[in-house]
Each structure stands twice: as C-alpha cells, then as structure tokens.
Amino acid sequence: MIKSPLQIARESYNPKLPEALKGTVKIVEGNKTESVADQGDISKLFPNTYGMPILSFEAGESAATDKAISVGVILSGGQAPGGHNVISGIYDGLKKLNPANKVYGFLGGPGGLVNNEYSELTDDVIDHYRNTGGFDIIGSGRTKLEEEAQFDKGLENCKALGINALVIIGGDDSNTNACVLAEYFLQKKSGVQVIGVPKTIDGDLKNEMIETSFGFDTACKVYSELIGNIQRDANSAKKYWHFIKLMGRSASHIALECALQTQPNVTIISEEVEANNMTLGEVIDHISEVVVNRAANGENFGTVLIPEGLVEFMPAMKKLISELNDILAHNEVAVSTMETNKERREFVVKKLSADMAEVFRSLPNSFANQLMLDRDPHGNVQVSMIETEKLLIDMVKAKLKKMKKAGEYKGKFSAQGHFFGYEGRCAAPSNFDADYCYSLGYTASVLIAAGKSGYMASVRNLTAPASEWIAGGVPITMMMNMERRHGAMKPVIQKALVRLDGAPFNALKRQRDEWAANTMYVYPGPIQYFGPSEVCDMPTKTLLEESK
Ligand code: FBP
C-alpha cells in the first residue's frame, strides 16, 4: 500500500482513552436489565443472556484472567470510519493484559467465520492500519449468521484456532446475530464468548447506554463538508436547486445532523413524514412551496436534504413495501427466474392487495422496479439503490410547471441530484471516531478478559473530554424486541429512529423556516486532524443537543 502523507502523519496519533481504561480495571455490576419490549418472548429465546446486569469500569484492582487468550474479530455490514481503531484497541488491550494473547481476524465478514478464512493480526499489520478509514484490514460482509449449521461450523473453527472469544463489530442486525450466537455458545457450554461493538454510520444503533454508533461522526462531517461546498456553489451561481439524498437506511439521523451542520433550505425527516401521515404529494407540495417563495425573492436556487429511507416512511409506500417484502420472500425462486422487470411487475401486482396494487401501478416504472430489487440478507429494502432524489426532482418540476401555467409561480427551476453515501463510509476517522473506536475496542478486551458474553461495549459521556468518558458493557438482550422480518416474527435489536420530541429535531424545527426563506448556509469545511481542539475534537451537533 502506498501511503499518503496524511496517512503517515496519522499513524503516530495516540487515541485518547477514558481515565478508567488507562490502568487496571475494576468491573462494577449494576442493576439487572429487561429488554425494551416483548420481555416474555425475548426472555424465553435468550434464557442464558437475558436480564444480565449493566457493567461499568472503574480504575481499581482487576479480576481479569492472566491466562493467555485468543480472540477472533469480525467486521460486519457497511463500512464505518474507525473500524481499524476498534481492532487496534482490542489488540492493545489484550496485549497489555498478556503479551501472549492473540488476535485473529475473520476475513470478509461473518462468512469468514463459517468458511474458516482468517489471518492472525500481528504488530506489523495493526500498526499499518492505525487511525485509518476502511475495513480493508480484514474486509467486511453481510452474511447473516442464523442457521445452527453456521453456528456449529463457526464454533468448530474457533475451537481449532483455540479462540476463546469473538468480537462482532456491526450494526443492529449484526449485533442481533452476536446476541443469538452468544446465547447458542452458552447453551452449548462451548466456552467461547461473544462481544458486540456498535458500528454504523447510520447512527440508528443507540439508546440510553449507547450514545452513538461509531462512524456517524466522521461520515456526517464528510457529507456536511460536501453539502457546504455545494451550497457555496449554489449561492455563487444562483441557478440550481440541489436535491441531496443522504445515506442512513431507515433513520434520518444523518440528514438531521448534516442539516444542523449546514443549514440548508429544506430538510426532509422521514420520521416526521410518517408521524404526520404525509403522502408523496404532500412532500412535493412542501418542497415546491419553498421553491416558489424563494423565487419570489429572486432566489432560484437552494438545497434539499433527503434521507435515503424516505419512501419507506410514507404510510402508503410503507404498506406497499411491507407487502412486497412478503411477496418477494415467499416467491423468491419464481421472481428471480423472470427475465424482464415488466414480467416481475405484473406478477407482483396480481399478489398485492387491491389498494396497494393501485399505488404500485401509479408509480413510474423505473421507480417501481427499484422497489422490487433484491432485499439484503437481513430482509431490508436496499434504499441506497432507490433514486428518491430523482423522483422528487421530477415531481417538483411537474408541480411547478402546473403552477406556472396557473400564474402561481414565475421563477426558473433547474435541479441537480446527488447521493452522498459511500464517499463518507471509509474516510480517515475524525479525532472523535479515532478516540471513540479505540476506547470501544479497549472496552471489548476488558469484557473478554472478565469472561463476559452477550454484552456490547459501551462508552458514554461523549461530549466531555475523552478522559471523562465512561466505559462498560450493556447486555445486548436489553436492546431487543420482536419484529417482522422475511415474513416471520424475529428477535432483533430495536432501531433508534429520530425522536420528534428529541433535542436535535427540535433544534431543526426551531430554525428551518428561517433557513428556508433566507440563505443562511454554513460551510463546515473538511475534517481537521491537527489544530485547535475546538476544531479537531468537536462531537456531532446531535450529541451536543442531546446532552444540553
Ligand atoms: P450498516 O447498517 O451495515 O452499517 O450499513 C450502513 C449503510 O451504509 C446504509 O446507510 C446503507 O443503506 C447500506 O449500508 C448500503 O449497503 P451496501 O454497502 O450493501 O450497499
């Protein structure tokens, strides 16, 4: 690998750790826990890992094992900045406990565990990847671990390598898998522990004990830089409306954070669209109204932020997608053997309920085809592949044309569509993510050495300086509820959507009318790695608002 000057300079960055992790660590047990919902079902499905106490770390005498242990790490799902630092934190934490401890990386995601594809991570390898973006140290993948045969194969491979614990670094679905695996390994009395680490740029793996998932900070800062650049371009040329779709799957946390950082003219929040029962037509009316009002002030330009999961939140579309999910899950073979999209659409229309068939027929063909694309291995619609920004541009254009004819609009509308997603997932982690990830990895090593399983590493108090962060472990069962997946009820970690009564959304609500009417753009510029702490170590606006 040819390293860039920044990469070389970042190699020597020493991530900051919470005070409690700097010396020997004492583990303090808190209260017993309950799952967020469906306690009866979850406790039955997880008899060995349900109800475990919350753990917090303090400086003090450690009860950790000093016997040499081996740990396998897995990077699961979409890339998120800082994954390499989680691994270096695990590595350094374990080596500090006993230099004979070993770390193996399973290659290409959870599939590597089942297929026994791994490599041992040594000083050379780890040093090469410190503070870098990407998951290329061992690769990632989206294989879902759900069959007993996969668990048994994984266990057999762990035993052969002498692995005592697995760390699964992933989002809500991957940590659900971690929990299922932990329970299975305990039932089998296998002696292999499983620990989860909260990863995802989407920011939707969060709760009382997990303030944010790693990668959200860096990804939002990258997108905000780009949005700021576009806004400055728009305000210079004054001739384009930019419709910017932002990654984030279902939740609108990324769109909301980027809005707070850049102050665009329109920000759609899917959760609000759903709560207000808004139709696609009403979303179009809202955007068009802002365009018309700005045009009346001579400003034929602007920015619209669109969360990538928007279509799933409009009541009619949500119902349609849910019916489509069931139809596609139950007719996988039949649908996959059809040669044309037309054939697929006709097949699906016959199976949809009458009202949903009507909604489906009313959609442009290109958009309807995108709704039928393969689901990911966890049954999710691949919203990144749905071109919502183009759909909105076309519909706003059509609406404005009508308004112009009726004499209600006199401006010019020329629009550009963008999608910001993949460009943010492998950026060099911000100081926040570099520190947070390293601390999460270090926390995982402490949980392992204490013999814990079925826990997620947790680091809190994140708006304070890193030395004051609070590290510990949270039982994964605490975050679970029952949801319909692939046509059946399954235990899964509850996704955290944007809370409409939460401080970050209220901050947007208070200011958005002013941002719509006026041009109040903020240009955040690129992430800074060297320089004053107020520039380099700043947490997200979401965390800052939530901590007020
Ligand atoms: P994770 O939930 O696995 O972290 O994935 C995040 C994400 O970037 C989503 O925002 C996006 O919808 C999805 O991955 C895209 O998936 P893929 O990389 O498979 O195209």
From TrEMBL:
Pathway: Carbohydrate degradation; glycolysis; D-glyceraldehyde 3-phosphate and glycerone phosphate from D-glucose: step 3/4
UniProt cofactor(s): Mg(2+)
Residues at the site labelled Important for catalytic activity and substrate specificity: D173
Major subcellular location class: cytoplasm
GO molecular function, one term: diphosphate-fructose-6-phosphate 1-phosphotransferase activity
One GO cellular component term: cytosol
EC number: 2.7.1.90
Positions with a binding annotation for Mg(2+): D172
Active site: D202
Site entry (Important for catalytic activity), positions: K199
Activity regulation field: Non-allosteric.
Residue ranges of every copy of the Phosphofructokinase domain listed in the record: 71-323
Enzyme class: transferase
Keyword 4Fe-4S: no
GO biological process: fructose 6-phosphate metabolic process; response to glucose
Catalytic reaction annotation: beta-D-fructose 6-phosphate + diphosphate = beta-D-fructose 1,6-bisphosphate + phosphate + H(+)
Top-level lineage group: Bacteria
Binding residues annotated for diphosphate, in chain numbering: G78
Alphabetic keyword roster: Cytoplasm, Glycolysis, Kinase, Magnesium, Metal-binding, Transferase
SUPFAM superfamilies membership: Phosphofructokinase
Binding sites annotated in the UniProt record for substrate: T200, I201, D202, K239, Y240, M247, G248, R249, E308, Y422, E423, G424, R425
Record flagged with keyword Nuclease: no
Quaternary assembly: Homodimer.
Family membership: Belongs to the phosphofructokinase type A (PFKA) family. PPi-dependent PFK group II subfamily. Clade 'Long' sub-subfamily.
Function description: Catalyzes the phosphorylation of D-fructose 6-phosphate, the first committing step of glycolysis. Uses inorganic phosphate (PPi) as phosphoryl donor instead of ATP like common ATP-dependent phosphofructokinases (ATP-PFKs), which renders the reaction reversible, and can thus function both in glycolysis and gluconeogenesis. Consistently, PPi-PFK can replace the enzymes of both the forward (ATP-PFK) and reverse (fructose-bisphosphatase (FBPase)) reactions.
Protein name: Pyrophosphate--fructose 6-phosphate 1-phosphotransferase
